[in-house]
């Protein structure tokens, strides 16, 4: 029987892919598969809902709190349903020195959401590092990475076809 968090087809996909993931780990260390299991669940559902975290914990034979701890620690996992677009703005040292805080404030006004919050359209977040120190400042929209965002015009061009 399908778990209520998944449709029947998604449940079959989840179970099949989790079984494949678990073949890569010792049988007595299922918990080692936590990151790939959470990522796979998020690929299927678009986020990591509480029911999904409980299901992953059950399948990996850990407490539900452990699945939540891991999912909430990593910025790539969404423990709240994200908007259509997830915008991560790097505010680490290199990006900050080249105007990241100003870009973040501009995006808060432009998108109508404060950093760390979202709505149905946007989730705006600060990111510790997006690995573009030599081409700072940078941001990501979903999985699309953008660098050298030194002007509002460059930022506006990214968002012109979104929303």
Structure, described:
This protein has 163 residues and is of the alpha+beta class. It has two domains: 66 residues, Orthogonal Bundle (Arc Repressor Mutant, subunit A), CATH 1.10.10; 75 residues, Glutaredoxin, CATH 3.40.30. It is 45% helix and 12% strand. It is built from seven helices and five strands; from the N terminus they run H-H-H-H-E-H-H-E-E-E-E-H. Strands 2-3-1-4-5 form a five-stranded mixed sheet, with helices on one face. A hairpin with a 2-residue loop joins strand 4 and strand 5. Helix 1 packs antiparallel against helix 2, helix 2 runs antiparallel to helix 3 and helix 3 crosses helix 4. It starts with 7 loop residues before the first helix and ends with a helix. The mean pLDDT is 92.
Query: Quick one: CATH superfamily of the largest domain?
Result: Glutaredoxin
Query: Which geometry do the CA atoms define?
Result: elongated
Write the CATH architecture name of the largest domain.
Answer: 3-Layer(aba) Sandwich
Number of helices: 7
State the low-pLDDT regions, or none: none
Radius of gyration: 18 Å
Total separate domains: 2
Percent strand equals 5-15%
Order of helices and strands: HHHHEHHEEEEH
Please give the order of strands in the largest beta sheet. 2-3-1-4-5
What's the overall average pLDDT, rounded? 92
Q: What would CATH call the class of the largest domain? A: Alpha Beta
């Amino acid at each position: 029987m399908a778990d209520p968090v998944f449709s029947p087809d998604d449940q079959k996909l989840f179970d099949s892919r989790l079984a494949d993931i678990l073949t890569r780990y010792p049988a007595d260390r299922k918990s080692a598969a936590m990151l790939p299991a959470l990522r796979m669940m998020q690929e299927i559902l678009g986020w990591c809902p509480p029911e999904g975290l409980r299901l992953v914990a059950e399948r990996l034979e850990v407490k539900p709190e452990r699945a939540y701890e891991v999912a909430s620690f990593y910025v790539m996992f969404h423990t709240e349903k994200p908007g259509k677009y997830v915008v991560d703005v790097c505010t680490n040292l290199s990006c900050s020195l080249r105007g990241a805080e100003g870009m973040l404030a501009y995006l808060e006004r432009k998108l109508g959401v404060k950093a760390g919050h979202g709505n149905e359209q946007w989730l705006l977040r600060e990111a510790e590092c997006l690995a573009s120190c030599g081409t700072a400042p940078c941001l990501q929209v979903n999985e699309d990475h953008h660098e050298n965002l030194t002007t509002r015009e460059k930022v506006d061009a990214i968002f012109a076809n979104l929303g």
